[in-house]
Specification:
Elements (H helix, E strand, L loop, with lengths): L1 H4 L1 H4 L11 E9 L2 E9 L5 H14 L5 E4 L2 E7 L3 H14 L7 H6 L4 E3 L2 E3 L3 E11 L1 H24 L2 H23 L1 E9 L6 H7 L7 E8 L4 E11 L1 H26 L1
Parallel strand pairs: 1-8
Antiparallel strand pairs: 1-2, 2-4, 3-4, 5-7, 6-7, 7-10, 8-9
Helix pairs in contact: 6-7
């Protein structure tokens, strides 16, 4: 239609088809480091997807370490505490181009609740990861683009003009592409929680000679539109208290045997 009647004839006012067909988001977390990566896919051999990744990378380059490779983009954030991470993400969101195709990336950078709690028990130390993920804004942004096109199609159909009927059909098809983008896109979140031992340095150093502290890795797959609470935790030891408890237990055993020996006499 654009070839026959000009590009304006095929363009809906304030609306367009998406430049990509799918977004694959991957967020990996470890204490002090968060990596947010996206892979864009399109239907024209990767050209539009690569151009979108380059646009986003150029906008963010001065605010965080960004690596771009074709249609893939990865942002690595290192931080000392959660408030500094959230502030860094806010600056990235403000710098992102105002493109609806970036809505899933924007949602991942807009998390407000992320914590690495440490809970102390009698002889244990529980290290955890908690994050409230809300990918609803991505679907709402894509639905809004679809609705713009469907609204334009309804107005065109109402004229009864043959050309407008063709335009309406094209715009409804473009609207479906936005909804397909939401249906096809995915997000994966991963977290690594490291076991932490505690106590005087000499006791911890001695304990590590015979005990390797481990780590726990969890992964979650989500769809755009979902909201989920992610949690993972691993137990470590308070080595000083554990040693004290073991010593007290040994002493109790010695006392019992000594008492038994005295009674036997």
């Amino acid at each position: 239609m654009a070839e026959a009647f000009g590009p304006e004839a095929a363009t809906a006012p304030g609306a367009r088809a998406p430049r990509i067909t799918q977004t694959l988001l991957r967020v990996t977390n470890a204490r002090g480091e968060r990596a947010v990566g996206v892979l864009f896919m399109d239907s024209d051999g990767g050209k539009s997807a690569a151009a979108l990744a380059q646009e986003a990378a150029a906008a963010l380059a001065d605010r965080a370490p960004v690596v771009v490779a074709g249609p893939a983009l990865t942002i690595t954030l290192r931080y000392g505490d959660t408030p500094s991470l959230l502030a860094s993400q806010d600056r990235l969101v403000a710098a992102l181009p105002d493109l609806p195709e970036l809505a899933l990336l924007r949602a991942a950078l807009s998390t407000r609740h992320l914590d690495w709690p440490v809970t102390e028990g009698l002889v244990t130390l529980e290290s955890g990861y908690q994050e409230r993920v809300d990918l609803g804004p991505a679907v709402r942004a894509w639905d809004a683009e679809a609705e713009k096109l469907e609204s334009a199609a309804r107005q065109a159909e109402a004229t009864g003009e043959p050309l407008d009927q063709v335009r309406a059909a094209v715009w409804r098809s473009d609207a479906r592409l936005w909804r397909d983008l939401a249906a096809l896109s995915r997000a994966s979140y991963a977290a690594r929680v490291d076991e932490q031992g505690a106590g005087p340095e000499w006791i911890v150093a001695r304990a590590r000679q015979f005990y390797d502290e481990g780590s726990l890795r969890r992964e979650w797959i989500m769809r755009p539109g979902e909201t989920r609470q992610l949690e993972a935790s691993i137990l470590g030891w308070r080595w000083d208290r554990l040693a004290l408890a073991a010593a007290m237990g040994l002493l109790a055993v010695v006392i019992v045997f000594a008492g038994a020996a005295l009674v036997a006499r």
